[in-house]
Design a protein that fits this description.
globular; 937 residues; alpha+beta
Length: 937
């Protein structure tokens, strides 16, 4: 290993040699200069700076807000879009994810975006686009007063939008976003916006009111009963149970808030008393004070359909995309909770094998046609606008015999029922909107721009923007001369779903570069039969078409590939696709901003890993590795690529192999103690020895050897967060060992003595496990804002150590530290996979707040991180997890990840955006690619 003789003599790596000359993205950004909300109210919006596509900063005073902006807008050919996210609902984290995705895909020379945020108390702020890339609103809520520009009132906010924005794209899910709140505010100030008007939103958003309206329009509806206010009508609910032939003690029903958005608070109940208990819980938690109880649709199959309006001149012409069947997967382990499986918030937004999607659905053709017909009629009848998502159920024949014979929804094959109208569909990268749009030829950018431009035609003053668009769209055909890039993700470790998210994000960001041809590739899971050893070179790799990437799990991608190659299924999909595309084109061809479809109908191609690598060599592709854990991070894949001289991203074989082994990592840097780099004492045990030993004996031996009272147990060779748990006693160790013995995929929350979240376990279980002393740190708490107090941080600081994670980037021997982030755990002592990688969960503080760590300690910390990176001979990029002493910057190494998470809200994105100037995701990933492409030069 190469080491530096002293910290001060180590070469510093100039950031300009890593990142290219960065042009500010094509967006309008509020200046990052801190401007506090004014208490006097004399100036409603003070000190705003707007950064245009150059680095020019333009000061705007109140006179400009009152009128000058209108003149500027008339002269400009650039459409200014105001992107609003956040809101008061529990879905505001998802709202941030959606806004980030929209921001990624709509930027262009003809369209600039400014970002705004509504906090839980309905205060409005102009925020920088960098804040939109935060993992959760909690990442920046506590510092809004110092980082963002606030408006005194929502009226002032609307007046600002009227002056400086051409059209608003509201991306607030749930309350205030879909209930007509933001729409009414915009209507009063005559601000054009995308989506349905306020009056129609109010009816469609309220699940009870919507069901009444559907019934009036002749649609079959699910029988329900509404409960509202303090006095719950128990006798009325009992009569409802009786009228619907439900047992008052055990009848199965669904209880859900009427105005809480998608899936929030939805639960299953049994009988009248249980239903009332669940209703009271929803009300007491402040989710909603109006709750409905409805019949559980047993035997039904759930679906969801995106509707796009392609009409003009105020005439609606809704086209329904290919619907998606939502298949809930139940395990065979007898878990009692599985019988209550519903498509809830977790299943909808977090990667899980508990749900699988099929687009188009595996329904009879007459049912698919009925869904499309009904959703189109509903869109018109409810007066919806631009786009929406409509959910429902397909029930087998005779399941709804109580309905009228002429009610809409009857088919020979069964009954179609519509249940939920989503006015602002989720827009995360793999959401239903993009899944279904890609099936009919739209890339992310193309569908979003189509929605925006269609909205513009409804406002006469925006007609001039409805010219031919110069949208950033994906390349639908192969072009000679483009640099080939293969992005590989997946694998078979417990981090494979995070790997899918990472690879999808990298692929979408690299597509922005016009000189690249980027192919997404899935490393399929290995053979589950452990008795059969398969040569790694024989592992399957799927080269994927656009639409098949947009899935939530690797298993779902593999199933989709198999399904796509089935002749019968392929023929049905092709016919439906053509039908929908013809309907869309018939509506949009009259608009010159519509440039056609940009996703071709291609089939997946299956290779062995060896043949895939030879193809990469043949076409001179660079491989972007996004496979977390397993062969993607232990040096195996790197070794295979090196043998064929195929360039790839990240560290080489030797460094990858060392860093994958947590013991080897410690041994490689334990000589750096005098430089302020420390390692944690470890005790390594074989899994078989643990299974055959008394847990009390092992507990005593390990705690005595490591001289500690509580332990951290983790696999010796696996990715971050997998199988990592805090154990406080011998019984905790017993629970963990039992999970290893039973090959459990996860340990449920709070199975151990100290509170914790879900612990994802490696399957198959690791051969070796590490015991370490558990490092105690003081809890960092985000203090919610109150009437008399701003939001802030609470940290006692009794322990002078905090946990950090930090990216390193550059060439071997000259790695540079990005800005470290302090990690805040929300559900226990160990960061879960979700908290690390899934948008809408987890909190990262970037940079570390000065109230926790001084600037001097931070700089020393970064120097030591760079020393670690260069000692381990890292290159390209990696992530180092550690504890840091906030007083002197000493670093206690936890682990090094050579293929770190690259999801849309990963901490590496935050850290790149903390550079000066900020490095936006598409530039960041292109930089990592270029570093990899230079490997064999």
């Amino acid at each position: 290993m190469r080491t530096s003789s002293t910290l001060s003599s180590k070469p510093r790596f100039d950031s300009s040699s890593i990142f290219p000359r960065i042009q500010s993205p094509d967006i309008i950004l509020p200046a990052s200069v801190a401007v506090n909300r004014m208490n006097s109210g004399q100036n409603r919006f003070r000190g705003v700076g707007v950064v245009h596509s150059s680095s020019e900063v333009v000061a705007i005073d109140d006179r400009e807000v009152e009128g000058v902006g209108e003149k500027k807008r008339e002269k400009s050919r650039v459409l200014k879009v105001g992107l609003i996210c956040g809101g008061p609902s529990a879905e505001r984290g998802i709202s941030l994810n959606s806004a980030r995705s929209v921001l990624d895909h709509i930027q262009g020379d003809d369209l600039h975006v400014s970002c705004y945020y509504i906090d839980p108390n309905l205060n409005a702020y102009a925020i920088s686009s960098a804040q939109v890339y935060s993992n959760t609103p909690a990442d920046f809520d506590f510092k809004l007063e110092s980082l963002a520009q606030g408006f005194e009132t929502l009226t002032d906010f609307a007046e600002h939008l009227a002056a400086y924005v051409d059209i608003v794209f509201p991306v607030i899910h749930g309350r205030f976003g879909e209930d007509g709140g933001i729409q009414e505010l915009l209507e009063k100030s005559n601000v054009p916006f995308i989506g349905t008007r306020s009056k129609e939103c109010r009816t469609a958003f309220d699940k009870y009111d919507a069901s009444l309206e559907l019934k009036r329009q002749g649609f079959i509806t699910v029988p329900n009963f509404v409960l509202q206010g303090n006095e719950l009508d128990e006798s009325g609910l009992s009569r409802w149970f009786s009228n619907n032939q439900l047992d008052a003690n055990s009848g199965k029903v669904v209880v859900k808030p009427t105005r809480a958005g998608s899936s929030i608070g939805v639960t299953v109940a049994y009988g009248v008393n249980d239903s009332l208990t669940k209703v009271k819980e929803i009300m007491s938690e402040g989710i909603d004070d109006k709750v409905i109880v409805e019949i559980f649709l047993g035997g039904g199959k759930e679906f969801t359909a995106i509707v796009l309006d392609v009409g003009s001149d105020s005439i609606q012409q809704p086209v329904v995309f290919l619907p998606t069947e939502v298949e809930l997967q139940t395990s065979n382990n007898g878990d009692i909770s599985e019988k209550d499986a519903i498509f809830n918030y977790r299943r909808k937004y977090l990667p899980t094998q508990q749900v699988v999607y099929h687009t188009p659905p595996r329904f009879p053709l007459d049912v698919i046609n009925k869904i499309r017909e009904g959703a189109s009629i509903l869109f018109k009848k409810l007066g919806l606008r631009d786009f929406a998502r409509i959910d429902g159920w397909f029930l087998p024949p005779s399941a709804m015999s109580a309905s009228e014979a002429n009610d809409f929804g009857k088919t020979e094959s069964g009954t179609v029922i519509f249940t939920d109208i989503n006015l602002i569909s989720g827009m995360e990268q793999t959401s239903f909107l993009f899944q279904q749009a890609s099936k009919v030829g739209f890339s992310h950018s193309n569908i979003l721009r189509t929605i925006i431009h269609h909205a513009c035609i409804q406002f006469p003053n925006l007609a001039s923007f409805c010219n031919k668009s110069s949208s950033r769209t994906s390349k639908s055909s192969k072009h000679e001369g483009l640099q080939k890039v293969f992005v590989i993700f997946g694998g078979d470790t417990s981090e494979r779903q995070v790997s899918l998210m990472s690879g999808t994000n990298v692929w979408l960001n690299l597509q922005v570069s016009g000189d690249l041809e980027v192919t997404p590739c899935l490393l399929a899971p290995g053979n589950d039969d452990s008795s059969e050893v398969i040569d790694v070179g024989s592992r399957a790799v799927w080269s994927l078409p656009y639409s098949l990437v947009l899935r939530h799990t690797t298993e779902e991608v593999v199933d989709a590939c198999t399904e796509a190659l089935d002749p019968t299924r392929a023929e049905l999909t092709s016919k439906l696709r053509k039908k929908v595309m013809d309907e869309i084109e018939n509506g949009l061809k009259k608009h010159n901003w519509f440039t056609g479809f940009d996703i071709s109908d291609q089939q997946p191609i299956k290779f062995t890993l060896n043949k895939w690598i030879k193809l990469a060599k043949q076409v001179q592709a660079t491989v972007f590795i996004a496979v977390h854990g397993g062969i993607g991070e232990d040096g195996t894949l790197q070794s295979l690529l090196e043998a064929e001289k195929v360039p790839y991203t990240g560290p080489g074989f030797s460094a990858s192999k060392i860093c994958m082994d947590k013991v080897a990592t410690s041994l490689s840097v334990n000589h750096l103690t005098s430089f302020g780099v420390l390692t944690i004492n470890k005790d390594v045990r074989r899994k078989e020895d643990l299974l055959n030993s008394c847990c009390c004996d092992v507990w005593g031996e390990v705690t005595s050897k490591l001289k500690c009272e509580t332990l951290c147990i983790k696999p010796a060779r696996d990715g971050c967060s997998t199988g990592v748990a805090r154990i406080c006693c011998a019984s905790d160790l017993g629970v963990y060992v039992k999970a290893l013995e039973d090959c459990l995929p996860r340990i449920p929350p709070n199975s151990l003595n100290k509170a914790h979240g879900v612990i994802e376990m490696p399957v198959p279980p690791p051969e070796f496990l590490i015991f370490e002393p558990f490092i105690e740190t003081d809890e960092i708490t985000i203090i919610p804002k109150s009437k008399n107090k701003n939001e802030g941080l609470l940290w006692k600081g009794k322990s002078r150590w905090v946990e950090i994670t930090v990216g390193v980037i550059g060439k071997r021997g000259s790695m540079r530290s990005l800005m470290p982030s302090v990690t805040v755990k929300e559900s226990g002592d160990i960061l879960s996979l979700e908290e690390k990688f899934q948008g809408g969960t987890g909190i990262n503080l970037t940079p570390p707040p000065l109230s926790i760590m001084s600037t001097e300690a931070l700089m020393k910390c970064k120097e030591r991180i760079e020393l670690i990176a260069n000692t381990l001979e890292l290159e390209g990029f990696s992530r180092i997890d550690a504890f840091v002493n906030v007083d002197n910057g000493e670093v206690l190494v936890i682990e090094v990840n050579t293929v770190p998470g690259m999801t849309p809200s990963t901490v590496l994105i935050h850290q790149a955006l903390a550079e000066e100037p900020p490095v936006y995701p598409h530039v960041f990933f292109r930089t990592l690619l270029d570093l990899g492409s230079e490997r064999f030069m």
